[in-house]
């Protein structure tokens, strides 16, 4: 006869083996989220400013969107107690470029990755969330005209040298050969024909080049 | 009797206890791994999840002051920087702000490189403006840091189209211990950043305007008024004359005084 006797200690061991991981998971799941809020004041919403400060302007399709937390330690030398850690969420968007309207570097890479503010959660358990008033959503497969600039940070922070955009104003999504930014939508401005928008930007680029 | 007792025969109780312990350990590790995996950046649950909580824009434009709030007001919490410090009996509540004036993110590095004297004076003007609405809430410049929740104002590089930004906000723990605390809408801290991006427009003690209320140079006072207004718990407003209008409007008619709507909104939030 097979000995199937399970001792009390074994029962406790088996129970613990099942209960502990479940408890750990439930504790993690029960930790509430930590939503933060962000808001920026728009300084200049003109197309001329956006085009003139842009390193690259291109049309293309979103192929990847990834949310990352960027940490930066802010040091205050004359008052060390005032030093602190800044933690922000950003979305990093990769676009397959189909057409360049401007590239100051002349490199015109096939894919470009830039970052923008984000509104939403970092994880499926909604532990790390952020609400940015001016954030827009980028979906894989969407087409748009993207106006991006190179961040030059005198403090050499973690975003220094990366490309960024104020997507609310500078990402003009393309639908049926017409473009419109979220900012223009908020202003009740009608979508523009893509060809007209391209010409408008080309005129600004040409004017800047002559200047 | 032929069976697999032979396998078990000769094994001590310690053997089985060790096996159970190893199994439990493996399950704990597996559980942690699974939990970590779902919390990792590779599993994004993205956008609009909590967007609805950021009430802004429409209600403010239609003139319902209390709906313009970013953060709710509490009357029971004790955090010194929390907006709840403006209880109905308080007449001295002020939210401290600390100017970062040294280091790589000193305000003296923002575009236009204003002096610390100019920055301090402009901050004072902005505080005077915001404190004029009511005695129940206001801002106060502090030169000493009393705890980690003090609200810092410093330079940071951001998209050149922005004139300023409120960042790195923290909220009251309704349960648990920071940073694993329960989220609620009671603001503890909100930092302010001014733009140090080399592409950004410069700041100065006075603004200079181009066409259509677009600034060539930002007035520091106006930008600081806007951002500190956020720190008092308000989202953007649709009135272009208000300091909390979402776009920097250049000109003497914009952002230099509180509108009647501003007064109503602030006193409604902090009665």
Explain this structure.
The complex is a heterodimer of chains A (211) and B (271). Chain A has 211 residues and is an alpha+beta fold. Chain A is built from 5 helices and 11 strands, in the order H-E-H-E-E-E-E-E-E-E-H-E-E-H-E-H. In chain A, a hairpin with a 2-residue loop joins strand 9 and strand 10. In chain A, helix 2 crosses helix 5. The longest helix of chain A has 23 residues. Chain A is elongated and about 85 Å long. Chain A starts with 7 loop residues before the first helix and ends with a helix. With 271 residues, chain B is an alpha/beta fold. Chain B has 6 helices and 8 strands, in the order αααβαβββββββαα. A 5-stranded mixed β-sheet of chain B has the order 2-1-3-5-4, with helices on one face. In chain B, strands 6-8-7 form a 3-stranded mixed β-sheet. In chain B, helix 4 packs across helix 5. The longest helix of chain B has 27 residues. Chain B starts with a helix and ends with a helix. The chains are: A alpha+beta (211), B alpha/beta (271).
Task: Tell me, rounded to a whole number, the average pLDDT of chain B.
Answer: 71
Estimated share of beta-strand residues of chain A:
35-45%
Q: Summarize the largest interface: chains and residue counts.
A: A-B, 85 and 98 residues
Intertermini distance of chain A: 97 Å
* Biggest sheet details of chain A: 8 strands, antiparallel
Structural class of chain A: alpha+beta
E-strand count of chain B: 8
**Roughly what is the average pLDDT of chain A, rounded to an integer?**
88
């Amino acid at each position: 006869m097979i000995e199937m006797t399970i001792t009390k200690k074994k029962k406790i061991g088996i129970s613990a083996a099942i209960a502990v991981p479940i408890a750990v998971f439930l504790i993690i799941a029960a930790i509430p989220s930590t939503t933060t809020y962000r808001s920026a004041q728009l300084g200049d919403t003109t197309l001329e400013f956006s085009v003139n400060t842009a390193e690259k302007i291109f049309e293309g399709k979103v192929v990847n969107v990834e949310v990352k937390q960027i940490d930066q330690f802010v040091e205050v030398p004359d008052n060390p107690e005032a030093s602190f850690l800044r933690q922000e969420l950003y979305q990093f968007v990769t676009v397959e470029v189909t057409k360049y309207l401007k590239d100051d570097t002349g490199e015109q890479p096939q894919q470009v990755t830039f970052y923008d503010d984000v509104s939403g959660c970092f994880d499926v358990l909604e532990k790390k969330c952020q609400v940015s008033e001016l954030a827009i959503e980028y979906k894989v497969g969407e087409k748009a005209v993207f106006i991006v600039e190179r961040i030059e940070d005198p403090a050499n922070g973690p975003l220094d040298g990366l490309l960024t955009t104020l997507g609310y104003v500078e990402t003009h999504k393309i639908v049926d050969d017409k473009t419109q930014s979220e900012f223009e939508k908020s202003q009740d401005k009608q979508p523009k024909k893509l060809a007209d928008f391209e010409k408008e930007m080309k005129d600004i680029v040409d004017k800047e080049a002559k200047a | 009797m032929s069976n697999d007792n032979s396998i078990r025969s000769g094994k001590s109780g310690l053997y089985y206890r060790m096996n159970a312990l190893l199994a439990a350990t493996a399950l704990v590790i597996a559980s942690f791994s699974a939990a970590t995996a779902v919390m990792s950046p590779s599993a994004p649950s993205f956008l609009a999840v909590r967007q609805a909580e950021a009430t802004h824009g429409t209600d403010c434009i239609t003139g319902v002051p209390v709906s313009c709030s970013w953060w709710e007001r509490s009357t029971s919490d004790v955090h010194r920087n929390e907006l709840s410090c403006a209880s109905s009996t308080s007449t001295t509540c002020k939210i401290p702000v600390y100017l970062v004036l040294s280091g790589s993110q000193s305000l003296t590095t923002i575009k236009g490189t204003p002096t610390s004297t100019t920055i301090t004076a402009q901050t004072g003007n902005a505080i005077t403006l915001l404190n004029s609405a009511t005695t129940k809430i206001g801002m106060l410049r502090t030169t000493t840091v009393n705890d980690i929740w003090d609200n810092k104002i410093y330079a940071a590089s951001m998209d050149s189209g922005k004139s300023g930004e409120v960042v790195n906000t923290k909220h009251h723990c309704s349960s648990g211990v920071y940073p694993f605390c329960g989220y609620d809408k009671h603001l503890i801290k909100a930092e302010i950043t001014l733009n140090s991006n080399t592409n950004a427009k410069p700041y100065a003690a006075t603004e200079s305007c181009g066409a259509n209320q677009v600034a060539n140079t930002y007035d520091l006072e106006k930008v600081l008024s806007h951002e500190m207004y956020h720190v008092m718990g308000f989202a953007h407003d649709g009135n272009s004359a208000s300091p909390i209008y979402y776009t920097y409007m250049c000109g003497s008619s914009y952002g230099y005084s509180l509108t009647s709507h501003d007064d109503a909104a602030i006193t409604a939030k902090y009665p």
